[in-house]
Amino acid sequence: MAKSFSIRHQPGFTTIAAVCFVALYMPIIVLVVYAFNEAPSTSEWGGFSLKWFQSASQNAQVIDATLRSFQIAAIAATLATIAATMAALATTRTPPYPGLTFKYAMINQPLMVPEIVTGVALLIFFSRIKIFTGYSGLGYLIAAHTAFCIPFAYLPIRARLENMDLSLERAAADLYATPWQAFRRVTLPLLWPGILAGLMLAFVISLDDVVITEFVKSGGQDTLPTYMLGQIRRGITPEINAISTAFLLLSVVIVTLFFFVSRKRD
Amino acid sequence: MPEQPGKNAIEVRGVRKVFGAGEAAVAALDTVSVSIRENEFFTLLGPSGCGKTTLLRLIAGFDYPSAGEILLHGDDIALLPPFKRPVNTVFQSYALFPHMTVAENIGFGLEMLRKPKAEIKARVAEMLKLVRMEHLASRRTSQISGGQQQRVALARALAPQPKVLLLDEPLSALDYKLRKEMQIELKRLQNQTGITFIFVTHDQEEALTMSDRIAVMSAGKILQVGSPWDIYDKPADRFVADFIGETNFLTASIAGIENGKARATLKSGATIAASVADGFQPKSEATVVVRPEHAKLVKGKAELSGTVENIVYFGTDTHIHVRLDGSNDLFIVRQQNARNADCGFETGDKAGIAIGDDAAQVLRD
């Protein structure tokens, strides 16, 4: 009998895998290593130091951009999660009907339309509103972030709802729970891990966005990623590496939490 | 079994339920009418797809009829949402809330009815005692066995003291022994609480052992309603006779119908007394059914005769398959076994089949 097919035993497998891993992780490792460089260079090693972390944490612009990033991400992720929860309920708690697939596509639109297109469209659209209303606050960024975060929040919530036994909600109704009570006492507690997962994913996506933010932001509304982009244009110091490293750590923590929350059953 | 025309708990009047529309429309229930009395254990029995679960869902309020009325103690509830009906359900999957304890599950209905805390506590304790689950009150429902989950589901549905309890094949997930135990348990609970039970099953044995009355359903219609004795001994039509237990079908001509009795002349020429199903229309040939245990295999001449073809031993009884002379049909006789004695016949023997008075029933179709 022939040995069963195993991709791991094909010629070149190990080489290709190694090349891929190096291409993926080597730049990140180099970036992290040079964040601890004593010398003001991102290519020549001058000894170990934490001074770039210290200078970044004392840089008023960095602090300002970081706080703005968190503010936008927190508000946008929350709004997106609320919208995504309602959308997920509306698309799973109904028998399939013609047009349902179209609605999935509508909700997931930000995953398919190129970001640059959305960015340009929002720039033109919002500039009209700015002229009309005179308002030029953070609202535009929050609205834009909310919109593109919805599909990321929607997917884990919908997955959770689809795995939930429909007869639980029926049992609640049978036991005299009004639709609102059934939602609050049965559906919501069981949906909670999905909602939390959606919220964290949306938060990370908002935090990370460059393209749409770059188009939509008004003067003095830099987020951390757009601030970093601006700095790079002026030449890189290891301070950027230090900020990136901190950013990376934060993302890893949130994504790990997301993984554990969405894996948890019941 | 004496008929006791008590008050009706549920009256289903001319209910239709159509799924789909136009060409693809399917009538899951085809103008069904039935009355379910107070305090009775009523079973909807039929194969899957016969409409029994659809009828239960209409009574529970999970779906609404396309036409007709459903009365609960005289009030039409057909269009009320489930949370406004004093009717509770035990689900096939139990549908226990996984994020609540056993006690919280049982108290849920009372809590939704805004009963005082002290009353809920007392009632939950009473229910736990009723289903013998006091020791597991604070467990999560995922930490108890299937049989225990079944008891919790029962207690949860009984706690708000519904007018009617609906049970949707609640025993189908249990193994044989546990199922037998729960059948007795259900009967006990019904006697103790005095609540009307409407039980859905496809298991004819379960229906016969537990029910006060049974409605046999097929293809969206109720074919016969009666006590287990009626359904078993006096089946109205071929489907009912065939679905419940084993039966021998014979062709006969019918004469002298009077008071539900008639003389049936079999193809062998013998004439036997038979009861006649309601709704029987006189015609040249009719179908007569004889249960295998109501016939007796004898040496020598009897109403029917044939050759023993097969003998199957079942422990408590023996089934003897007889090829009838003339018609060449197979006739099964069931004979109670005695200790240290065989059935008295061997394959190839010539034998007579004696059919006593009141052993045969004429079907309406």
UniProtKB/TrEMBL annotation, chain A:
CDD domains: TM_PBP2. It comes from the Bacteria. It is found in: Cell inner membrane; Cell membrane. PROSITE patterns: ABC_TM1. Keywords: Cell inner membrane, Cell membrane, Membrane, Transmembrane, Transmembrane helix, Transport. The chain crosses the membrane at residues 12-36, 70-90, 111-131, 137-157, 190-207, 240-261. Residues 66-261 form the ABC transmembrane type-1 domain. The keyword Cell membrane applies. InterPro entries: Bact_Polyamine_Transport (IPR051789), MetI-like (IPR000515), MetI-like_sf (IPR035906). It is a multi-pass membrane protein. Required for the activity of the bacterial periplasmic transport system of putrescine and spermidine. Belongs to the binding-protein-dependent transport system permease family. CysTW subfamily. This is Spermidine/putrescine transport system permease protein PotC.
From TrEMBL, chain B:
It is an enzyme of class 7 (translocase). Its EC number is 7.6.2.11. This is Spermidine/putrescine import ATP-binding protein PotA. Belongs to the ABC transporter superfamily. Spermidine/putrescine importer (TC 3.A.1.11.1) family. PANTHER family: SPERMIDINE/PUTRESCINE IMPORT ATP-BINDING PROTEIN POTA, SPERMIDINE_PUTRESCINE IMPORT ATP-BINDING PROTEIN POTA. It catalyses: ATP + H2O + polyamine-[polyamine-binding protein]Side 1 = ADP + phosphate + polyamineSide 2 + [polyamine-binding protein]Side 1. Keywords: ATP-binding, Cell membrane, Membrane, Nucleotide-binding, Translocase, Transport. It comes from Mesorhizobium retamae. CDD domains: ABC_PotA_N. Residues 10-244 form the ABC transporter domain. SUPFAM superfamilies: MOP-like (SSF50331), P-loop containing nucleoside triphosphate hydrolases (SSF52540). Part of the ABC transporter complex PotABCD involved in spermidine/putrescine import. Responsible for energy coupling to the transport system. The complex is composed of two ATP-binding proteins (PotA), two transmembrane proteins (PotB and PotC) and a solute-binding protein (PotD). One of its GO terms (molecular function) is ATP binding. InterPro entries: AAA+_ATPase, ABC_SmlMolc_Importer, ABC_transporter-like_ATP-bd, ABC_transporter-like_CS, Mo/tungstate-bd_C_term_dom, NA-bd_OB-fold, P-loop_NTPase, PotA-like.
